[in-house]
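Pipeline run #58 for the internal structure catalog. This entry was flagged by the ingest filter as a single-chain record with no existing model, so it goes straight to prediction. Upstream metadata was stripped on purpose; only the residue string is passed forward. Reviewer on rotation: M.T. Logging verbosity set to normal.
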Amino acid sequence: MASFTAVTRVLMAGTACVLLASCGGADSVASPGAGSVTIVNPAPTPTPAPTGTPTPSAITAAQFAAVTTVNNISITADEQLALVNAGTNNNVNGVNVLSGVYPVSATSAATATDPSSINAFFTSTNFVGALNGPTDTAFQDWTCNSTSAQFGGTGAACTAVPAVGTGGSTAACPTGTIDDGLVQTFRACRLPTLITSSLTLPKIAGVFYRLRGQTEVGADVGTTGADTGVTLTIAAGVVIAADSTEATADLLLVNRGSKISAIGTRSAPIIFTSQQNLASNGVSDATQGQWGGIILLGRAPVAVCATGTGPNNAGGTSTTCQQAIEGVTGRFYGGPTAADSSGQMSYVQIRYSGIAISDGNELQGLTLGGTGSGTVIDHIQSHNSADDGVEIFGGTTNMKYFAVTGADDDGFDIDNGYRGFIQFMIAAQKVSGATADSFSTEIDSNNAEDLLPRTFGQYANFTFLQTAAAPAAIRLRGGADMRFTNGIVRTPSGVACINLVAGEVSVSDRSTVRAANSALQDVGPPVFSSVYFACQGR
């Protein structure tokens, strides 16, 4: 702007000279000769060539990968970077290509790999990340919006009072529930703490369903028991809120042999939340940990067995191996039935959950313990959990369309011999950053690295927006196998993208990155294909 002003002043002065030379009373104006005026135009200021966005220098191994030493065993940063570079279509030198959770361009940030060629569970895609460009609506309407992630569409703010409806003062609670009277203007219909026969929760205008304490569906049938026939069915649009009037940790637990059928729709998702969320301004974007969460327990194989019940084998055929689930006392998961079903959850929001009972003993937004491939999990949002968004303890359940927003610990945490597929994943941590040591995803086997079945998770089309000052966005440890396909990973300054850790077996036989060994159900080092990394705030 300064150059333009200077040029303008010179041109105006020259114009004034012309006018004065042609008018009477201009005798005092100097001129080179009678009747003539010479105007010298100044040389134009050169227009600087556009510089564009500077290309960052190549990332160093130390910037890309964090090194953690366990039992005097480590995987160097150079080794981790070389492993990713050995994959196909990966970009380790990326810069931010996201506006919030959405790509800024309709062009894929990296050449995609067709995940359906890996397994038929995966949808064929030609883009990296969870969303196909800035106009993809796959996560809209059934999600809620917050500072952690704006999905757009018709989804309300996560802080907004869910659509319970009007008419609570005259509404009647359905059979099998307990009338707790009015809360705000809504009728509270409480679930019994033990559901011993199938129960249906219909959508009734003005009614929400209340959880008080540890609410359980069915009784545990053990590793091989027959189904109880007990199913909790929840209609589309239903709101279930934890009871804020008493101090007990409120949660919903589905025992082995029973099922949940919580099937919402895109326009009418089922919402699990805290009772505080039913009042205007009752929660904020910082609210978390107001109730326990949802636990599904199944009879599929697990690797970590309770004392005296193991060990298991590669086929997961042990009929005795089981493990106690975190967050509650005396409830177990695991069994020999890989195709076991704990029911279905689709188009469901889980808001403001997660409670730390003690260090390493927490309730997450959603906990899956030994659930099988017959369990259907899709279109789930876990919002502002005080612990993980979802933790998967063993089992074989596959998932699609899962958004973890604002979790205070890990987004996706898998361990204990989980073997499954997950596609269309978003982990968007809190804008202010989650707690230290919180990862977009953490994969391990609890430092028991050669237990069987061996953890083998496969992710496709994932977007990880790391904000926490953790070592990295992706932590893979404990001898787990892993395949990452079609991803976008973004981390802030000071945070690496990956952190590969081995704590067993020896310096020359590091379980996480050693060559394939079929005797140990080991498929070899992790595989990265078509992953776009924007590390260290680049």
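catalog note: Confidence is low (pLDDT under 50) at residues 1-42, 49-53.
catalog note: DSSP finds three helices and 33 strands in the chain.
status: ready for reviewer M.T.
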